[in-house]
Write a structure and sequence with these properties.
This protein is mainly alpha-helical. The chain contains 14 helices and 4 strands. The chain has a 4-stranded mixed sheet with strand order 3-2-1-4, with helices on both faces. It is elongated and about 135 Å long.
Length: 382
């Protein structure tokens, strides 16, 4: 039962799922809202600019029907006339076409937003599968679309019938009116009918838009198993991540160990802590921590130091302080300058004695550090 509940699509789509769907060109869309936007834009343009557009088209038609011999035999004049007529035609239709195109571009932003995805151009032969086609044909969504189309047809037809019935007398009167008046009157009736048909689609559009958003959310719903799989995919499998961290730690440890032969001194606890220091010659900064470790790592540091003849110095409080208050690659804390200077002075004197002879330097018998820098100052030493 638990496995079945984990596989049920009960969870809202995650941001990653929504982003992935958008990348594939899958966003909520309402065709009815787009259709209504285009039709109402066309109706507004005709109401505002219809009379002017009709007059311009009428003048263009009248000009095109004028026959002048010179214009028919002179090729340049014919070309210029056609170009001028075409330009005037485009200019007369520009308000209507421009507003319709603008509404067609704006309407997608109302639901789903603008989107361009090249993945929609990639052939998907799975859509040619008859089984998928039949399942889509008899799906719940297909039934809703069918009912919506029937309601839209009935509603638009009913509104058109009401408009025509309310203008019955005017329609019959067209036959007795002069041609110019009848044409203008007929255009007004058609415009009224067209406008009310567009407004009737508003009812369908304002129902369809929320439904399409709901259907899109339902379609992208995820199961709990989907969420877990997505988390593994985006964040990585915990076991894999642990293995990667282990490899990274091993690589860091190897890099650290490779620096020990270059160290000037290794300060020890003597068994629990080991910190390797390097003071580069002609450097303008304090000595650097090149390696540090506890227990087994400290033992390995001491072994490498002995192997490469790096000086080992037992200074438990200083070793603990350096371990707890600095990181690999950092300069030593300023509060420990004096203590480290005592150690390095002895190391450099020891090198000179080993190289040139003379009086053997004395090992510092007391290394003083601030009490608050030793984590064990109040509990005793290891």
């Amino acid at each position: 039962m638990a496995e079945e509940s984990d596989l049920e699509k009960t969870e809202q789509a995650s941001p990653r799922r929504l982003e992935k769907a958008r990348e594939e060109g899958d966003v909520p869309r309402s065709k009815e809202l787009a259709t209504f936007s285009v039709l109402i834009a066309a109706a507004m343009s005709l109401w505002i600019n219809g009379e002017s557009m009709v007059q311009q088209l009428k003048a263009l038609l009248a000009n095109a029907l004028v026959f002048e011999v010179i214009n028919q035999v002179d090729a340049p004049l014919v070309d210029n006339s056609l170009a001028l007529d075409s330009f005037n035609l485009i200019l007369s239709l520009l308000p209507l076409v421009g507003l319709v195109i603008l509404s067609a571009l704006i309407s997608p932003a109302l639901i789903g937003g603008w989107l361009f995805s090249n993945k929609v151009f990639i052939p998907n032969f799975g859509k040619l599968n008859p089984a998928n086609g039949l399942s889509n044909m008899f799906s719940k969504h297909a039934l809703v679309e069918l009912l919506k189309s029937i309601i839209k047809t009935l509603l638009v037809g009913y509104v058109s019938w009401l408009v025509i019935m309310s203008h019955t007398d005017a329609i019959f009167a067209l036959a007795s009116e002069p041609l110019t008046v009848a044409s203008a009157h007929q255009g007004q009736i058609l415009l009224v009918c067209f406008t009310f048909m567009a407004l009737a689609l508003a009812i369908i559009a304002f129902i369809d838009a929320p439904y399409q958003m709901y259907h899109y959310a339902q379609k992208l719903k995820m199961s709990r198993q989907d969420l877990r799989d997505e988390a593994k995919e985006s964040e990585g499998n915990p076991e894999t991540k642990a293995k990667i961290r282990s490899i990274q730690r091993e690589m860091a440890r190897r890099r650290m160990m490779s620096q020990i032969p270059k160290a000037d001194v290794v300060i020890t606890n003597p068994t629990h802590y080991a910190v390797a220091l390097k003071y580069p010659e002609n450097a303008n900064h304090a000595p650097l921590i090149v390696a540090k470790g506890m227990d087994q790592i400290a033992l390995k540091i001491r072994e490498l130091a002995l192997e490469h003849k790096v000086v080992l110095m037992e200074a438990p409080p200083l070793a603990r302080a350096l371990y707890h208050h600095s990181e690999i690659g950092d300069e030593i804390p300023s509060q420990l300058y004096t203590a480290v200077a005592q150690i390095l002075a002895y190391v450099f004197q020891l090198r000179d004695w080993q190289k040139y002879g003379g009086i053997e330097p004395l090992i510092p018998d007391y290394i003083d550090i601030p009490a608050d820098f030793d984590p064990l100052s109040n509990t005793g030493n290891h």
